[in-house]
Write a structure and sequence with these properties.
By secondary structure, the chain is mainly alpha-helical. Helix content is about 50%, strand content about 10%. Strands 1-2-3 form a 3-stranded mixed sheet. Helix 3 crosses helix 4 and helix 6 crosses helix 7.
């Protein structure tokens, strides 16, 4: 299993705001074999198929009324109402939670037993004038990590640990930090 993240500050460098969530995104991306539906309509169709066409069950999952779900999925031209931005985020989260559960379980079990390969970017160098040979540069790091690290990362993710906690514990475990 290969986990690809970009921009994670390793080797003692602090995480930037843009880097937060990269480990979790990399874990999620590594556990998918097919792309998640991109449009809201396709995501609603997926949720309806997952709940055997029951708008009542989909409404319970999304925390809205059954009639609201019916308005979102109707094919009648005047009756269709698109979901708002908050509902779109809720729909996306519900789809991501339910996307390929068997594949995700299989990949997770494999990563926890066999380990995985971790690809990331980090800045190396010294604080120097721009253009000098000591100027920090972004380098790709590839590290083969054992299954204990995968178990620790998944356990931290399941417990709701923050990105900084996941980075520090996984890097220290893999001996990437001093």
């Amino acid at each position: 299993m290969t986990l690809l993240t970009a921009g994670v500050g390793l080797v003692g460098w602090p995480l930037r705001k843009a880097d937060v969530g990269k480990i979790e995104q990399g874990l999620e991306r590594a556990l998918r074999t097919r792309p998640v539906p991109s449009s809201t309509e396709a995501r609603l169709r997926f949720l309806l198929a997952a709940h055997r066409g029951s708008t009542r069950r989909v409404a319970a999952v999304l925390g809205v009324s059954q009639r609201t779900v019916q308005r979102w999925v109707t094919k009648k031209t005047g009756a269709r109402r698109p979901p708002g931005p908050a509902q779109v985020r809720t729909i996306e989260a519900a789809v991501l939670d339910r996307w390929q559960p068997l594949v995700r379980a299989r990949w997770r079990a494999q990563a926890e037993t066999e380990g995985f390969v971790f690809h990331t970017r980090a800045r190396f160098g010294f604080a120097a004038a721009a253009g000098s040979s000591d100027d920090p540069r972004v380098r790709w790091i590839t590290q083969d990590l054992p299954g204990e690290v995968a178990r620790e990362l998944f356990a931290a993710q399941d417990a709701g640990a923050g990105e900084q906690q996941q980075t520090v514990s996984s890097c220290a475990r893999a001996r990437l930090l001093p």
